[in-house]
Structure formats: structure tokens, C-alpha cells
Write a structure and sequence with these properties.
Elements (H helix, E strand, L loop, with lengths): L7 E3 L2 E3 L3 E3 L15 H12 L4 E8 L19 H13 L3 E7 L7 H4 L4 E2 L13 E2 L2 H21 L3 E6 L4 H6 L14 H19 L5 E6 L10 H14 L4 E4 L21 H10 L4 E3 L6 H9 L5 E4 L1 H5 L3 H6 L14 H8 L28 E5 L3 H12 L3 E6 L8 H4 L8 H15 L2 E4 L5 H5 L5 E4 L3 E3 L12 E3 H6 L7 E5 L3 H11 L4 E6 L10 H13 L3 E4 L3 E5 L2 E4 L2 E4 L2 E4 L3 E3 L4 H8 L3 E2 L9 H14 L1
Parallel strand pairs: 3-4, 3-12, 4-5, 5-8, 6-7, 8-9, 9-10, 10-11, 11-12, 13-14, 13-16, 14-15, 16-27, 18-25, 19-20, 19-25, 20-21
Antiparallel strand pairs: 1-2, 17-26, 22-23, 23-24
């Protein structure tokens, strides 16, 4: 039985344990590709906390091959000082550093680089709205040389491993995949032809490394596209790569045209790549590294001890909890703050041009600025409201040495976390609630099941600080008939406090409305969504939106956009002169902050801190951040 904390050899490199920080975009480099101090601090802290090897995420070997403006580059010697500093910092922290060399191919964008993307075939990528040109054989020669120079610079900078990106629809993967390679020459058609250029690049990098550092590949085990690259061919490619001399295979999945399989949301099963890893281990002699929603300590431990893979690559899990590996090492599994796979702070943020953040961890990418330190003046803190903002504030305030009392009429609910987790495939949000509740107990936060109605209810706790975290309530739109008996609120439906009829019309097609529709459709209700805007779920990220549309279609939910509601009547909803029959009408049309206590509290206690949705209705990530920052300021 192999232990997670036993050493692993990858070619000439020996790693201290079986944890890799998975390669993923983080948006923390300077615009143009130079390493930033923020990025160094981010990686160094993960190395300090026992990640055996840190993978950079994609490093572009050519200007037109960059996928993001704040992505590391290596196409010029000017990048070397920053890369050297990064490697040195990780080495000093006890870790190893791996460079993932890539070219984004058809998934690069003119909007980012100002240059025309290159691809095996001139097929646009809808996700980035690219317009690539087909590479010539001369282009291939130049690209091969750029990969070689990238590897040369990586070794000069001090990287301990070079990973060649054969995954996710980028240039080399797009040659391998029949979905993106429509060539009719010697580089397209058969698997042998599609492998010709990627394998040529790989062999060149193996010669360049010449046993100084290991060379590995990261490959999509399955592209999850009907005409894409499937595992049967991937297995053959991995054997070819092993014969060429690679030292390990790292498994991922998908491409931008199947993005949900590359950056798996919560509807993708935990550990979904394990069957592929197990089969590859039976066919290869080099180590197999696996990723893919490994947000369970028991699952992570079993992968290595049962021999399903040789190493685990954890990405978002180390954004959610920088102490993930340390906690596993110490047997503190119950204290891990797991990634909920929402993709809101990380993937959605990066695609919007921001650095990676995390819904459950306000410190992510702010490692230098946001640190919890003991308060010089510990006092009594009363927090009103037990949602994510209130509980995170309580957690951090208690860590700082304050005596914390949290008041909520139903503290077990976690505010809206139970409601958010109610729709199909959203139960992962409960991981955050479980973590926060566990921290309340561990840190000795006094939890009082009480609805605070007056300042006197707070005064009995003699607070030095009062924090209002009462959240927000759904608002009723000014529609005639909105007070009729058949009208209910979406949150009450999701909470199970009201029952609906068989025919349901939902007013509002944001994420709450859409998820309420799916919640009811799964129960057999006939559901229609009426949305005034031109599209539904506009607040939904790129890794979720395609799946949501598929689910709405599968569940036969009627969606009407551009729907101005003129009235609600006992028979249904009137829009543009048409009646949408309903036994129940559900309102999912916005929120209003609950500040009913603010003015009375301010008159009694002076300054009152207001956080989360009580400040303004937004997302859980905002609540987490404000709870953290408020507690740090107390």
C-alpha cells in the first residue's frame, strides 16, 4: 500500500510526496506575461504548505499563442529574471517547480494578443470568438523551434520539470483531435498523421532536456465531443509518448468546446477521471497523475493507497484551502475547506480578466495582504445573522482572539446556503456550510438561536462591536395581482415551505429563477419562465451555461425572453396580451437588503458594521470577502 506522503520519482526528479498543485490559469502575472510578486507569493505559500511540485499553468511559447493577457510568457529572454525568482522562491519553500509549455492555438484570441491565432485548421473557437489561420509546414518548423527555446529558457530559469500541453483544445491537442483537425495532408486524417506534429515537438523537447529534467505530458483522457479525441486513441498516444521517453502522464479532460469537462462544475462527478487513470496505469510503466474534482480527503487518500494513480493533481482545492495538504497530513480532514466547484471566483473571474479568487476563501490571491493576526484589543463581538458573511466574520474574529456571539433564528441553515444548495446538482454548496459550522464549534463561537428584534436584544451581550449580517429578502415587483394567493416566492419553494400546483410560471429568468424551474421540473411540474431581458441566466458562468440550457430543454421548461408582464390573474400571467396558465406563480425577480435593524442599532451603539447582502444583494463570494475583511478590521 502506497502512502500519500511517500516520495515519488518522475524520471530523474524525486518528489517528497504525492501532491501536485495542478496547472491552472490564475491571472496573476503582469499583463504581457512577466511574473509578478503576487504570483510568487501565491505559489510560494502552496509550496510552504507541502505541495511537492507546483505547476505553473500554461506558459506561452509565442506571442500569438497566449490565451490571457495576464498569463506567463517564455518566448523571450526578458521573461527569465521573473521566472528565476519564481523558481527560487518555490525551492526555498521546499517545493519543486514545473513549467507547462503551450500554445493556445485556435483558443487564443485576437482581442488578447492583437495577432491572428494559429491552428491545424482554420476553425473558429466560439468561446473566444477567434479567427485562426491554418498553419503551414513552415509555421510548424517555427513553432517547434519556439517550443525548444521555451524549454531551454525553462531549464535556465530553474524549473525542475517540463510538461508539454497535449490537453484542453490548445494547439498540440487540436492537432490530435479530429474535432479541430480537418487537414487532408500528412498532418491530418489518421491518428498517425494527427500525432505527427505534436510527437515531433515532444521528441524535440525530450532531446533538449536530455535527462536534465523530466518531460511529461498533460492530456485530455476524453474530449467529450462526438467527433473529438476519445480515450481509445488517447491510450495509444500515451503509449507513443512513453516510448519516446516521457517520465509521466498527467490526466485532464475536455477542450473549450467541452469546457465543463476541463474546469468541472459541481454537476460533474467527483473523481470522474479515475477509471481512465486506472486503465492507463495498467498500460504504462511511467507514473500516472490524475485530477478532476478531488474535493474529498477520503477520495484523495484512496486514489494513491489503492493504486488508481501514482499522484494527485489538486488545483481549485488549493485555492479553496491553502492548508489542504497540511490538514490531510495531520489527520484533520474535517477541517478542510473544500472547493464547491462553483467556478465563480476562479474560472469565471479569470475569463473576465481578473486574478483567480475563491468563493470560500477570501485570502486566495491576496496572500500578502489578507492575513489573520491576533487583535491587540480583544473584545466582545455580536454578529446578527448566520449566513456566509456572518459565519465567516465569526470565524476570523474568533481566530483573532475576540469573544464572538452569533445570533440567528435558525443558525443551522447557514443563511441562504441551504436554499442555494436545494436545486438539482447544487448540493456541493453544503460543503461550505459544514466547514463554517465546524469552525464555529472548534473556535468556541457562542451561537444563539434568537431573532434580534431591538437593540435591547443585543445590549444584553455587552458588545464592543456589532456586525449586521442579516442578508437580503426577495422583493415583489410592481405587477398588478402580485398579492394574489397563487403567488409565492422562489426561496420559499426551494426551502420547501410552500407547495406548488402542477402548472407553474416563474417570473424572472436569472439564476434563481432558472434553478427553481429545474428544481420543480425534476418533481414533474410543468414550468414556464418569463424573463424581461433578452436572455436567461445572464449571471451564469461559461462552464455552467451550456449545461443549464441542456437541462432546461431536457426537462421541457418553456422559456420566454423579452416578456413584459402586464398582470397576474387567478388563471395565470399576462404578457403581451397572452395568458400563461398557472396554478402557481413564482417570483424570482430580485432582492432587497434587510437593513430594518440598522438605524436603531446605530442610535444605540454608534458604528455598526454592515456586511454581505445586508450591505447590498450580491453573491456568496462577496459575503465571504466582507465577512473576512470586517473581522480583520475589528
Amino acid at each position: 500500500m502506497t502512502d500519500l506522503f511517500s516520495p515519488l520519482s518522475i524520471g530523474p526528479l524525486t518528489l517528497k510526496n504525492r501532491f501536485m498543485m495542478a496547472p491552472m490559469e490564475n491571472g496573476m502575472a503582469h499583463k504581457g506575461g512577466c511574473v509578478s510578486e503576487r504570483l510568487i507569493r501565491f505559489f510560494r505559500e502552496r509550496a510552504e504548505k507541502e505541495a511537492a511540485i507546483i505547476m505553473t499553468g500554461s506558459i506561452s511559447i509565442s506571442p500569438e499563442g497566449s490565451g490571457l493577457p495576464s498569463q506567463i510568457g517564455i518566448w523571450d529572454n526578458s521573461f527569465l529574471p521573473g521566472l528565476e525568482k519564481l523558481c527560487s522562491a518555490v525551492h526555498d519553500a521546499g517545493g519543486r517547480m514545473g513549467a507547462q509549455l503551450y500554445h493556445a492555438g485556435r483558443q487564443a484570441s485576437e482581442a488578447v494578443t492583437g495577432l491572428t491565432p494559429l491552428a491545424p485548421s482554420a476553425l473558429p473557437c466560439a468561446v473566444v470568438n477567434s479567427h485562426p489561420r491554418e498553419v503551414s509546414e513552415k509555421d510548424m518548423d517555427e513553432l517547434e523551434q519556439k517550443f525548444i527555446l521555451g524549454a531551454r529558457r525553462a531549464m535556465a530559469a530553474g524549473f525542475d520539470l517540463i510538461e508539454v500541453h497535449f490537453a484542453h483544445g490548445y494547439l498540440l491537442h487540436s492537432f490530435l483531435s479530429p474535432h479541430s483537425n480537418k487537414r487532408t495532408d500528412a498532418f491530418g486524417g489518421s491518428l498517425e498523421n494527427r500525432c505527427r506534429f505534436p510527437m515531433r515537438v515532444l521528441r524535440s523537447l525530450l532531446r533538449e532536456a536530455s535527462d536534465r529534467v523530466p518531460v511529461t505530458i498533460r492530456i485530455s483522457a476524453e474530449e467529450f465531443l462526438e467527433d473529438g479525441l476519445h480515450f481509445e486513441e488517447v491510450r495509444t498516444i500515451c503509449r507513443m509518448a512513453e516510448e519516446a521517453g516521457i517520465s509521466a502522464v498527467s490526466l485532464s479532460a475536455g477542450s473549450y468546446d467541452a469546457l465543463q469537462w476541463s474546469i468541472q462544475p459541481m454537476f460533474v462527478k467527483r473523481g470522474f477521471l479515475l477509471p481512465y487513470a486506472q486503465e492507463l496505469k495498467q498500460n504504462l510503466h511511467v507514473p500516472v497523475i490524475v485530477a478532476g474534482r478531488l474535493n474529498s480527503a477520503a477520495l484523495v487518500r484512496d486514489i494513491v493507497t489503492s493504486g488508481k494513480a501514482d499522484m494527485v493533481a489538486i488545483g481549485r482545492g488549493l485555492l479553496a484551502d491553502e492548508d489542504f495538504i497540511l490538514k490531510m497530513k495531520d489527520g484533520r480532514d474535517e477541517e478542510i475547506r473544500y472547493c464547491v466547484a462553483c467556478n465563480q471566483g476562479c474560472a469565471d473571474g479569470i475569463m473576465s480578466g481578473r486574478a483567480a479568487e475563491c468563493l470560500v476563501n477570501a485570502r486566495c490571491s491576496f496572500e500578502a495582504e489578507r492575513n489573520v493576526e491576533k487583535s491587540p484589543r480583544p473584545g466582545r463581538v455580536v454578529i446578527i445573522g448566520g449566513g456566509p458573511a456572518g459565519m465567516e466574520c465569526a470565524r476570523v474574529a474568533a481566530l483573532r482572539g475576540h469573544a464572538v456571539t452569533l445570533c440567528d433564528p435558525d443558525p443551522a441553515s447557514g443563511g441562504k446556503l441551504g436554499i442555494v444548495a436545494a436545486p438539482p446538482e447544487k448540493a456541493s454548496f453544503l460543503l461550505y456550510r459544514e466547514y463554517l459550522h465546524g469552525q464555529m464549534k472548534k473556535l468556541g463561537v457562542q451561537i444563539v438561536s434568537e431573532r434580534i428584534l431591538t437593540p435591547g436584544d443585543v445590549q444584553k451581550y455587552s458588545p464592543d462591536h456589532v456586525v449586521l449580517a442579516t442578508g437580503a429578502r426577495q422583493s415583489l415587483p410592481p405587477i398588478p395581482g402580485v398579492n394574489l394567493p397563487l403567488v409565492v416566492m422562489a426561496e420559499d419553494v426551494l426551502a420547501g415551505s410552500v407547495r406548488t400546483g402542477e402548472k407553474v410560471v416563474i417570473i424572472g429568468g436569472g439564476l434563481v429563477g432558472v434553478e427553481t424551474a429545474l428544481f420543480l421540473a425534476e418533481k414533474g411540474r410543468q414550468v414556464s419562465i418569463l424573463e424581461m431581458a433578452g436572455a436567461i441566466a445572464r449571471d451564469c458562468g461559461a462552464t455552467f451555461i451550456g449545461h443549464i440550457r441542456e437541462e432546461l430543454e431536457r426537462c421541457h421548461v418553456q422559456v420566454c425572453t423579452g416578456a413584459a408582464i402586464s398582470a397576474i390573474e387567478s388563471c395565470g400571467v399576462i404578457s403581451h396580451g397572452e395568458t400563461y396558465p398557472a396554478d402557481t406563480v413564482i417570483i424570482a425577480a430580485g432582492y432587497r437588503s434587510d437593513q430594518s435593524l440598522l438605524e436603531p442599532l446605530q442610535k444605540t451603539f454608534g458604528h455598526v458594521h454592515v456586511i454581505g447582502d445586508a450591505q447590498a444583494p450580491r453573491r456568496i463570494q462577496d459575503a465571504t470577502r466582507e465577512g473576512f475583511l470586517c473581522a480583520c478590521a475589528l
